[in-house]
């Protein structure tokens, strides 16, 4: 019997670089500074709350939009941090991670032929979601090595077909953050063009050196046309729980929820209950910048004797580094060599570009125990 012909909807997509590098690290016994997850646990109090929620019967479907307690706590947190009051019933949706929220937001508004502006380097889930919805990615490179937005280039790419602009701040992989002038430029563009915005803010609580995260929710003119997405997995060191959320105006939320209900319907109930209770104390997320800045600074100090050149990191838990003084290999080959020969796994930054732009940069994740960073740095300084 002849098998049916299968034509892939994503013919150019294979295993993600994060999966590939983590597997390579495991095969070669390398220290894994590639994939963005901590090697330490979350707060014991949060684990206790999750266990308590299961014991107390929070084991069935939650409302599709999320448990009321969690949505109310998100609203409270957002108002305290950004001065924006989001209606818990009509504007906040709990999702199975930020990746689901990104897919739902893109699917809700992008139709075949719509153009979506993507600032590169960019997180790898944006383009596949656009492709699957028949959209057209329009790429605008960030400046190098600052990774700032060139708003004139963005303006030049806007057209009558532009449906959506995707922003990410703090930015993965570079660690760059939005500035007040960025928001001003963006507001000026929205006055001339009717596009919508996705603001990927999953690292909102990892901004360093006394700076503040500039959420799009701080600007009413921008909030009224934006899906603002964040992740408790990043904030509370629970990436495997896959609990994120999206804040958007009621009309956008209505369309967003139409997609969400057929993607996951709802997110794990006991985790929602636990996080909702845990959010009653703001200290864990308010002290997160200092927690990760300490790790950033430690890693930078440990790498001083090395031949890596670190790019300034204003946010996230990622550190970019040039390796020109070590090797002439292209980034992907260097990352593989580093994993196999030096025993430290990293992510090549070229994979965040559609055309594999190669600046001889790699990305380290410093969301690791102190001893992990010390062991990795010891190996890296021998190169």
* Global structural class: alpha/beta
Q: How big is the Rg?
A: 21 Å
Q: What's the count of strands? A: 13
In CATH, what is the class of the largest domain?
A: Alpha Beta
Write down the domain tally.
2
What is the CATH topology descriptor of the largest domain? Aspartate Aminotransferase, domain 2
What is the ordering of alpha helices and beta strands?
A: HEHHEHEHEHEHEHEHEHHHHEEHEEEH
Counted by DSSP, the helix tally is 15
Global geometry: globular
Word description of this protein:
This protein is of the alpha/beta class. The protein has two domains: 17-38 and 287-380, Aspartate Aminotransferase, domain 1 (Alpha-Beta Complex); 44-281, Type I PLP-dependent aspartate aminotransferase-like (Major domain) (Aspartate Aminotransferase, domain 2, 3-Layer(aba) Sandwich), CATH 3.40.640. The chain is 40% helix and 15% strand. The chain has 15 helices and 13 strands. The strands form three sheets. A seven-stranded mixed sheet has the order 2-8-7-6-5-3-4, with helices on both faces. The protein has a four-stranded antiparallel sheet with strand order 9-10-13-12. α2 packs across α11. It is globular.
């Amino acid at each position: 019997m002849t098998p049916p012909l299968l034509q892939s909807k994503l013919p150019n997509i294979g295993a993600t670089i994060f999966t590939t590098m983590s597997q390579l690290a495991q095969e070669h016994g390398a220290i894994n500074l590639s994939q963005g997850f901590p090697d330490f646990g979350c707060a014991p109090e949060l684990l206790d709350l999750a266990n308590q929620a299961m014991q107390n019967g929070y084991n069935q479907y939650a409302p599709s939009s999320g448990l009321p307690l969690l949505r109310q706590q998100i609203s409270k947190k957002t108002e305290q941090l950004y001065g924006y009051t989001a209606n818990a019933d009509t504007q906040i949706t709990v999702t199975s991670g930020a990746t689901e929220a990104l897919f739902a937001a893109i699917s809700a508004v992008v139709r075949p032929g719509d153009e979506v502006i993507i600032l590169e380097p960019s997180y790898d889930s944006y383009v596949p979601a656009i492709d699957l919805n028949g959209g057209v990615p329009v790429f605008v490179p960030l400046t190098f090595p600052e990774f700032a937005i060139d708003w004139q280039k963005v303006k030049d790419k806007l057209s009558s077909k532009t449906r959506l602009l995707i922003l990410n701040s703090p930015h993965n992989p570079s660690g760059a953050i939005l500035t007040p002038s960025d928001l001003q430029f963006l507001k000026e563009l929205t006055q001339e063009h009717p596009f919508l915005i996705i603001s990927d803010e999953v690292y909102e609580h990892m901004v360093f050196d006394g700076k503040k995260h500039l959420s799009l929710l701080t600007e009413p003119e921008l909030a009224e046309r934006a899906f603002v997405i964040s992740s408790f997995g990043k904030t509370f060191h629970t990436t495997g729980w896959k609990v994120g959320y999206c804040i958007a105006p009621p009309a956008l939320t209505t369309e967003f929820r139409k997609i969400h209900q057929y993607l996951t319907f709802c997110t794990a109930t006991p985790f929602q209950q636990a996080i909702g209770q845990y959010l009653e104390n703001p200290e864990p997320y308010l002290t997160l910048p200092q927690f990760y800045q300490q790790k950033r600074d430690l890693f930078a100090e440990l790498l001083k004797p090395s031949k890596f050149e670190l790019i300034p990191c204003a946010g996230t838990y990622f550190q970019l580094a040039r390796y020109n003084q070590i090797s002439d290999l292209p980034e992907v080959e260097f990352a593989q060599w580093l994993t196999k020969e030096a025993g430290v796994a990293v992510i090549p930054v070229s994979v965040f570009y559609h055309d594999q732009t190669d600046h001889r940069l790699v990305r380290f994740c410093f969301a690791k125990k102190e001893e992990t960073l010390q062991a990795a740095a010891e190996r890296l300084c021998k190169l």
